[in-house]
Design goal:
The complex is a heterodimer of chains A (200) and B (161). In chain A, helix 3 packs antiparallel against helix 4, helix 4 packs antiparallel against helix 5 and helix 5 runs antiparallel to helix 6. The longest helix of chain A is centred in the middle third of the chain and has 42 residues. With 200 residues, chain A is mainly alpha-helical. Chain A has one domain. Chain B folds into two domains: 85 residues, Orthogonal Bundle (Rna Polymerase Sigma Factor, Chain: A); 71 residues, Orthogonal Bundle (Arc Repressor Mutant, subunit A). Chain B is built from eight helices and no strands. The chains are: A mainly alpha (200), B mainly alpha (161). The interface between A and B is large, with 52 and 67 residues.
């Protein structure tokens, strides 16, 4: 369908819509009330669950910190605590940025730009965090092995093998996830290019 | 006139416009209702900042397009609004030929990128390049160039079929 034909169809639809007024004052005012917006914000819930798990884990490590008796497990314990606290904060920060896009005062171009920039940065961060995930696994396993099972990584070849398998599985998972996000990154970059804007 | 009265009047006058925007940006009736409600909510939130400034329609299109774009990008991450499920947004007519042409038109629009979708929507709404520029933040000449490109794209889509 060419543009002129589209214009004719659009105009016909507009005329018919003009005759079909469906909204009442009551419905419109209901739509303006926040309490009617019962959105189940899945992403916020999943972040919240993640945050609670991290918090419980951090408290658990703190309570049992005295069980870590070697410089290596103590260092891993400190880094694990830091990861459990800093990780959720960074995640929440991204959510806050996404919500900050001003749909009321921005023009359309600005909204597209803001969204593409945040998207691009968020996915870069996600890619880094998956790579960091492998590092985190190497650090947290000795801590939990010691606290929960009293096992020392250096004296337990079975545990080392489990860790090795874990790293391989995680790496494969990360490979596919980053491939998937690569497409989203490309779409964000395309939007910026289309608008003639360079990412900062 | 009270704020509520002025607002309901604005929405009633433009309910068809909001319907058309929501249909371009969504694929199901459920999502369309969701987006419709979100647009009305955002318009209400920004209503104070609008009163007295720019032309009402320019402001309304700008908020509606911004909301539609950000809504579809977040759509997969969220559940649905449930309280107003009883709203009947269905566009009723008894012309199967028109329905077929509408489907064809929407499927072609949906093949365009996000910026082009907004531009074609405004063009079909009969907006002049100057007003499209005010709503989108592009310059008038840029709007003209991009619309020429959209025309070429539509022709190419036609050839592919």
């Amino acid at each position: 369908m060419e543009l002129e034909e589209m214009q004719a169809v659009w105009s016909e639809m507009s005329d018919q819509l003009e005759k079909q007024k469906k909204l009442t004052n009551e419905i419109i005012l209901k739509m303006t009330q926040q309490q009617y917006k019962k959105k189940i914000n899945k992403i916020v819930y999943s972040e919240l669950i993640g945050f609670i798990i991290c918090l419980i884990s951090a408290i658990y490590i703190l309570i049992n910190f005295h069980k870590l008796d070697h410089w290596f497990t103590i260092s891993c314990g400190i880094i694990t605590l830091a990861l459990f606290i800093v990780g959720p904060i960074i995640s929440f920060n991204w959510l806050k940025r996404m919500k900050k896009i001003n749909v009321i005062d921005n023009n359309y171009k600005q909204t597209l730009t803001d969204f593409a920039k945040i998207q691009e940065k968020a996915f870069k961060y996600k890619n880094y965090s998956y790579v960091l995930g492998i590092g985190a696994m190497l650090i947290t396993v000795p801590v939990f092995a010691k606290i929960m099972g009293g096992k020392d990584l250096e004296f337990d070849p079975g545990l080392l093998f489990d860790l090795f398998v874990g790293v391989i599985i995680t790496s494969v998972f990360i490979y596919f996830i980053t491939k998937f996000y690569g497409r989203t990154m490309k779409s964000a970059a395309d939007t910026l290019a289309e608008l003639g804007i360079e990412d900062e | 006139m009270r704020k509520e009265e002025a607002f309901t009047l604005l929405i009633k006058e433009n309910e068809g416009v909001i319907f058309k925007i929501t249909r371009v940006y969504t694929n199901t009736l459920e999502d369309q209702k969701d987006l419709y409600q979100e647009i009305v909510f955002q318009l209400w939130k920004g209503f104070d900042s609008f009163r007295g400034d720019a032309k009402a329609s320019t402001w309304m299109y700008r908020v509606a397009l911004n909301t539609a774009f950000t809504h579809i990008k977040k759509e997969k991450r969220k559940g649905h609004n449930v309280a107003l499920d009883h709203i009947n947004l269905k566009y009723e007519h008894d012309d199967p030929v028109l329905e077929e042409r509408l489907k064809e038109m929407y499927s072609q629009i949906k093949l365009l990128n996000d910026l082009e979708k907004g531009l074609i929507l405004l063009l079909l709404e009969g907006k002049k390049y100057e007003e499209i520029a005010q709503i989108t933040g592009l310059s008038s000449s840029n709007v003209g160039t991009r619309i020429s490109r959209i025309k070429q794209k539509l022709k190419k889509q036609l050839v592919k079929k």
